[in-house]
Amino acid sequence: MSHCLSGRSIDHVVLERGEVAHTWRTERWDSLRLLTPNWQSRVPGFGYNGNDPDGYRTLAEVIEFIASYAKVISAPVRTHTTVTSVRSTDAGYLVHTDQGDWLCRTIVLASGACNIADVPTFANRVPPSIMQLTAKEYRNPEQLADGGVLIVGASSSGTQIAHEIQRSGRPVTLSVGEHIRAPRVYRGKDLQWWMDAAGVLDERYDEIDDILRARRVPSLQLAGTPDRSTLDINTLTEIGVKLVGRLANISENGKAQFSGSLRNVCALSDLKMGRLLDRIDEWAQKNGLDDAAGPPYRLPPTRVEPAPPLGMDLTTGEVKAIIWATGFRPDYSWLEVPVLDRKGRLRHDGGVVSSPGMYLMGTQFMRRRKSALIDGAGDDARDVSAHLASYLGGHLARARALLED
Questions:
Q1: Are 110 and 388 contacting, i.e. CB atoms less than 8 angstroms apart?
Q2: Of 43, 20, 7, which Cα lies nearest the Cα of 376?
Q3: In this structure, are 202 and 299 located in the same domain?
Q4: Is 392 found in the same domain as 317?
Q5: 142/155 same-domain check
Q6: With the C-alpha atoms ordered 372, 378, 383, 388, is the resulting torsion angle positive or negative?
Q7: What domain range is 48 assigned to?
Q8: Could you tell me the CA-to-CA distances from 189 to 48, 332, 372, 381 in Å, in that order?
Q9: pTM of the model
């Protein structure tokens, strides 16, 4: 967004509570790699220029990429500046920070959608002897005592963390809720290549029947490993991870209760994967790529034991830690403008917030299916900055008219 505003000669400042790439520096586990291939790290005026386009950036490389971009475009970043409140004024917005106040006609909220771990309220019934971590607090298996680990959530974070901890020698039980299974490589190409080429990632928010539902869809079960391997539930069970259904409750006496729908949830995930691959196959055929690509295929169905456990006694000492990989929600506690719905979600139309002159960037399916990816930021920023520039132009025209009167 800063690059696009500079291109339109719009004076602006970027306020950052920590260093550039703050959350990547402070809220990621050590072995994390980007889920998108290197070639897909492309933003306006900057992209990947190394010799491994199909690889996946390490945590350190992601930090360096973002920090380098800020320098290349000379982004006017004010680091270590925490916004404490945003309020409406007659002329726009008043932004309070711990380093002083700012007055602005327009404001872009780019604070992300993953600020607060979405942990269920019954987590307070976990016995105190069990360590609890969220996915943003987990760093590596050495944080954990020897013994069993219950991981709640089976999207990309949960499956990667389960794989790492199981291989460390700590037995893992994975509580599986809604998820979307996906092959890392399909017909000789990274799945992201197919989704990009076939236009899946460019689907717009105003082309979707239920955009609120689409914005809540979990992330694909992908991992950015050096060998480009598929990491799914079958991969985990092959190394000894035990599966249970969605964690429905924890009783006052420390008994965990799991849903009995594990088999159905996994079957639905397989069905969704099949639909995505069907769409890719249809696109490949229509565009003459069937001969060049490998033949279509489907992964074996997700394997689930006949009667997965429906309960677990957390007081026995077998489970030493619980990791909550249950997703996140944004933090708008500092936003003192009436733009949230009754569920605390920001009301916006493709990034144009319901308060005039306020905009959004970087949330799930904001304007396109790829909005939450690095690769989606550029297109969204071009669209949103155009609307912002038009809004400022209208303000200027009205001010001139008043002066002439």
A1: no
A2: 43
A3: yes
A4: no
A5: yes
A6: positive
A7: 2-115+330-404
A8: 18, 39, 22, 28
A9: 0.94
Spell out the residues 6+ positions from residue 267 whose beta carbon is closer than 8 angstroms to its own.
Answer: 301, 302
Give Rg (Cα) of the chain.
Answer: 23
**Domain total in the chain:** 2
Question: Where among 327, 361, 379 does a domain terminate?
Answer: 327
Question: For residue 339, what pLDDT band results from cuts at 50, 70 and 90?
Answer: very high
Burial 100-115 (b: 16+ CB within 10 A, else e): eebebbbbbbbbbbbe
- Kindly report, residue by residue over 104-146, the tens digit of the pLDDT: 999 999 999 999 999 999 999 999 999 999 999 999 999 999 9
What's residue 33's pLDDT? Answer: 96
Same domain, 299 and 354: no
19 in helix, strand or coil? coil
335 shares its domain with 350: yes
Q: Tokens at residue 218, please?
A: 């979990």
Burial of 262 (0-12, 13-18, 19+ CB in 10 A): buried
Average pLDDT over the chain, rounded to whole?
Answer: 95
Residues 6+ apart with CB under 8 A from 71: none
Whether the CB-CB separation of 273 and 180 falls below 8 Å is answered with: yes
Q: What is the pLDDT of residues 22-56, one digit of tens each?
A: 999 999 999 999 999 999 999 999 999 999 999 99
Residues 342 and 302 reside in one and the same domain: no
Nearest CA among 313, 343, 312, 349 for reference residue 330: 343
Which CATH number do you get for residue 86?
A: 3.50.50.60
pLDDT of res. 394: 81
